[in-house]
Amino acid sequence: MDAKHYEIFRNDKYGRYLVANKDLxxxxxxxxxxxxxxxxxxxxxxxxxxxxxxxxxxxxPVENTLCSRCGWPVCGAQCERDPQxxxxxxxxxxxxxxxxxxxxWTASAPQLDCITPLRLLLxxxxxxxxxxxxxxxxxxxxxxxxxxxxxxxxxxxxxxxLVDHCKxxxxxxxxxxxxxxxxxxxxxxxxxxxxxxxxxxxxxxxxIAAHSCVPNIVHTILQDNYKVEIxxxxxxxxxxxxxxxxxxxxxxxxxxxxxxxxxxxxxxxxPRCSDPTELGTHLSTVKCNKCDNGVILxxxxxxxxxxxICTEKSCGFKTSSGAMRKMLAVVQAEVDQLDALExxxxxxxxxxxxxxxxxxxxxxxxxxxxxxxxxxxxLYGRVAGYDIDELPDxxxxxxxxxxxxVLKALDVIMPxxxxxxxxxxxxxxxxxxxxxxxxxxxxxxxxxxxxxxLQEPIQCLADAARILSREDPQSPEGITGxxxxxxxxxxxxxxxxx
Length: 498
Fold this sequence. Notes:
The protein is α+β, with helices and mostly antiparallel strands. The chain is built from 17 helices and 14 strands. The chain folds into three domains: 6-34 and 207-245, SET domain (Beta-clip-like, Beta Complex), CATH 2.170.270.10; 37-199, no CATH class; 380-497, no CATH class. A hairpin with a 5-residue loop joins strand 5 and strand 6 (198-202). Helix 3 packs across helix 7 (174-187), helix 11 runs antiparallel to helix 12 and helix 16 (455-468) packs antiparallel against helix 17. The chain is globular.
């Protein structure tokens, strides 16, 4: 058991929440947590994508390979014997309930919606004390959930299926199954799996951490056992609440607040959400197309129906929140299509085309544009035709500018150590290094100036290696951290040889 660096408090706003019980350094491990249950995501509106049939042990996609005992998806004999699958395998085998054949093994599989609630309930049977101590108190928002279509879907696809079809009525009742669905819907977190697809898990202690759109803690999932490590992102004083960000940090306020209301059942009123400029980052700011000088901001970001108006008093342009949501949804759908592209020249060129298309619509630091720039910062130097040692100085400078733009936003919305910061620091080192070497090679700077200029990429690599060393070593971020450490040693050696 790790040293306890927090206390649990309760108030009307957060319910239960965590508070530091000592001064914490940035990067310090606060606690670790083991999942109470892990399993496939449900195909619901509050989770990002529906899940095709996956192996119920390793979560790799499967096609017509089923467990020889229960007839549910697994990818082979080893996964069939995996402890993770054992308990549900027994339930399905005894009830003679098999996975129904599907024609398209790449399409969403709502049959899997029952798996994670079932695992949660079987874990309750196995460890009733932990359930009582850690899960019984969790928020489930039953009244609010009953008003939504997903409640009725859960009743048919999960509750009735488990109690009646799987013949578990003597072990669990319908109310308990709906409670399990509520625990998952409100408290589960989406995590990467060894198979590459996102799955979900319930971490009882992590679930107590309150939300803020400017968090002071970060979490890392270790993929071999799905243990989570929670660290301080920045120095935290004794008595300060521990805040986790439940949403994607780069999303604009209108999107973050809708997601939190839909999936977590609360309206966020944190300082970032309360400020029309998002603490000066302008992640929600739109350019005015009626005048040259103004930008369009919400008159009250905490009111979902508030008007948006131009800041130029002589302009007077106004638009509705509904129109803003519609416009964001249309552009975001266009951007989502870019994410489906394979990394290659087209992935760069089409993103640059979107930036050019919308540069007169959005503030240059708007969430949508900065997310594209974040992707481009990682693509430049990594794809055919745009290799790092072939990029002209203009493109090297563009890559560096994108990295700095994202890092500047992170300084405000996600201060301290984070995966995103570590990745951007790694990406920033290369253009800085090549620009300095290129200038030296044509005599624009002296040897001493070259040594001076290489200090910044060295610092970028050192910080990237330090931050990303905390990630799972098999994850893309963990691998990048290892590469950053190797590049750091090579750059230091080349500096000494100059």
